[in-house]
Amino acid sequence: MEDVISAYDFSRDQYLEIFSLADEILKGRKIKMKEKIIAEAFFEPSTRTALSFSAAAQRLGMNVIGFSSQEGTSVVKGENLADTIRMMENYSDCIVIRHKFDGAAKFAAEVSSKPVINAGDGKHEHPTQTLVDLYTIFKTFNTIDGLNFGLIGDLRYARTVNSLLRGLTRFKPKSVYLISPPPLKARKEILRELNYEYVELNSPYDVLHDLDVVYVTRIQKERFPDEVEYEKVKESYTIDEKIVNSMRKGSIILHPLPRVNEIDRKIDVSPHAKYFYQASLAVPIRQALFVKILGE
Amino acid sequence: MEDVISAYDFSRDQYLEIFSLADEILKGRKIKMKEKIIAEAFFEPSTRTALSFSAAAQRLGMNVIGFSSQEGTSVVKGENLADTIRMMENYSDCIVIRHKFDGAAKFAAEVSSKPVINAGDGKHEHPTQTLVDLYTIFKTFNTIDGLNFGLIGDLRYARTVNSLLRGLTRFKPKSVYLISPPPLKARKEILRELNYEYVELNSPYDVLHDLDVVYVTRIQKERFPDEVEYEKVKESYTIDEKIVNSMRKGSIILHPLPRVNEIDRKIDVSPHAKYFYQASLAVPIRQALFVKILGE
Amino acid sequence: MEDVISAYDFSRDQYLEIFSLADEILKGRKIKMKEKIIAEAFFEPSTRTALSFSAAAQRLGMNVIGFSSQEGTSVVKGENLADTIRMMENYSDCIVIRHKFDGAAKFAAEVSSKPVINAGDGKHEHPTQTLVDLYTIFKTFNTIDGLNFGLIGDLRYARTVNSLLRGLTRFKPKSVYLISPPPLKARKEILRELNYEYVELNSPYDVLHDLDVVYVTRIQKERFPDEVEYEKVKESYTIDEKIVNSMRKGSIILHPLPRVNEIDRKIDVSPHAKYFYQASLAVPIRQALFVKILGE
């Protein structure tokens, strides 16, 4: 395993290997990778992703350098991305990049001789979030095959959805329901790639009782062309008690977080609510990924 | 010892235990707490406090993650404090929080299953600064009981003063003089809690010769409702040679720092000036606190 | 070796000692300086320099604290530089400072009891970049004496040039050509100090075939009094194929980076292009410097 740019970069077996290594780490297995340095090149702000990569690296005894926004980097002096990446590869053993442009991670991987991990590039992909998502599902149901999925909310601008849809091609979902307001429907070019059945819906109510996994995405203001469109749909897909009450026993609600209003806080205490558990797996799964990429 | 939200969270014995552990650390005792990660959630900027916590953690072999301002956190995406704290607890073993709202640290401690340390919440408290302050006094006089204290300057908006006044309730100060311009008098609700004698004054001159400890606070612009009020009092309480010459032998001047104009730089060389010595104790005392909270 | 403020702070022997220690580190010699903390006080933004110092410290097992811009430091609260430095020395074993004012590093060294390293102060000096530059030359030619140097571009506002010109006084360059547009000529006060021959030119073409080292500097917008003057000269000194084709065999092109338009990207693949190799030496040479200053 070298660069991780897309959820396609893992085979089914590689997903399962990473999950089982994460299990060992959760059970307390100590892996030390001292001397090594992870470079976090975050051209776009993030806390959650950057901090979970930092914590994963440090739990393995590695060090972290990097920046958390474009300001104060040489980019403001007019340096191009290629030169910035060449600098980072000189200083580190692995580059974790977040960038506002689709394809920036792939470009960085072409420039860099060190492994590059995509921590989110524009509206394109966020494959390590998909690792977290699928690992949470796997730990809950002990499988990913044969389950019914409902992806709800912004399926158009959310890179987490693009990566999850692609990651699911490595498994055998029974059915996948894509539930969104029309302006936020999943992109045709992604749907064309899928090797499993999916159904597009405008409302979750008809299928809720069938779903094993309800995957909710934040309706991200910063992804919207204009504020008005954002306000229109913001509230429309809130997961509330009415929705949760019609969910089947044992089914789970996931969310990549951060959330704004998509999930009513009353739901946090529901047995269906697994998004904080999901968040708790962000560090061990990234530890496992680092080990697979950099070796013990 | 679990969360540290207020200077009240330490008993007299706990203060003394932390002081003696800090003494051992200063004498060169090595304590290693590898594997552990400290999360610094600084929603309000700080250098002094954040860097001293980072240095303390690193001296103990621990790692540090976090952010140093609200910008670039998920808060700007609309995430609430509870969710941000739930994220941090997943990534770390202890959360150090600074926030502009009074009570934010207490709220974080209620949400988090990991220990939370208050590094300053609004105008409320700054208990680890009080650890530094009392430790400096203890190392100078070998006691805190029976001393005369003069707190000078902004006693209303300075959280360091609130915490120091509360910390002193664990000891037996002989007398405490609260010296401030009228608009900056200490808050009634704090004074009501005190179990020792105090006197409020508008000028230090009548009592200077009696004071063992002169505790000066920065008149913090950012704490003021309006600029005009700030300018009026800014210069009024400057510690200069005239004041220092009337101080008793062996008495000391402390300041939480940073200072602006409250202490004339000529005073830095005076034997009374202990504020840089005080600053030098910020790291060992926080090392001792981490050990008490997280265990060796 | 204590503070490093100027390229003059190294004797010829000290340059050579640092080079040979860097060689050993590149050959895989492990040096561990655990427990120690490096403080990076970057009052002016930087990625390249700050990250290479961080990587160097971490490769040696040291920890790093600090800040990467003036915002969010106590300076915005009105604290002066001396007090900020006194704080940093309490928290660390060595201070690396970058500041927009000439002489800020020297001032910091006078205040601090801990070693101070100048990571760039205004238009004054950048001595650790000179370590990188001279080390690259030394590794390429196995000497620095007897070579012909051409410094091209902004010789007036670039602190890297000031330090390189001074560093070369410790060696015996055969000839040094200073090639710049008139408004960017090297400063008289520096030229007066030099103990070797130099020639000032407006164009490189007459001497290119004689040069062993072509040292190109970025024409730094932020160093210019006004934008118009910047635009005028920006493109004027671009290293392109025409220039490279007239360079002698074995000669090299160096650049402190970041570059904007001074070197045509087509040149990156030329055997003369050594600026990325130069960048790759930034970490080992700074590791060697830390070892010399702080001891093993």
TrEMBL record, chains A, B, C:
Residues that, per the record, bind L-aspartate = 77, 159, 218
Q: Does the keyword Cell membrane apply?
A: no
Q: Which reaction does it catalyse?
A: carbamoyl phosphate + L-aspartate = N-carbamoyl-L-aspartate + phosphate + H(+)
Cross-referenced InterPro entries, in alphabetical order? Asp/Orn_carbamoyltranf_P-bd, Asp/Orn_carbamoylTrfase, Asp/Orn_carbamoylTrfase_sf, Asp_carbamoyltransf, Asp_carbamoyltransf_Asp/Orn-bd
A Pfam family of the record is OTCace
Described by its record, this protein's role is as follows: Catalyzes the condensation of carbamoyl phosphate and aspartate to form carbamoyl aspartate and inorganic phosphate, the committed step in the de novo pyrimidine nucleotide biosynthesis pathway.
Q: How does it assemble?
A: Heterooligomer of catalytic and regulatory chains.
Q: What is this protein called?
A: Aspartate carbamoyltransferase
Q: Which organism is it from?
A: Candidatus Acidianus copahuensis
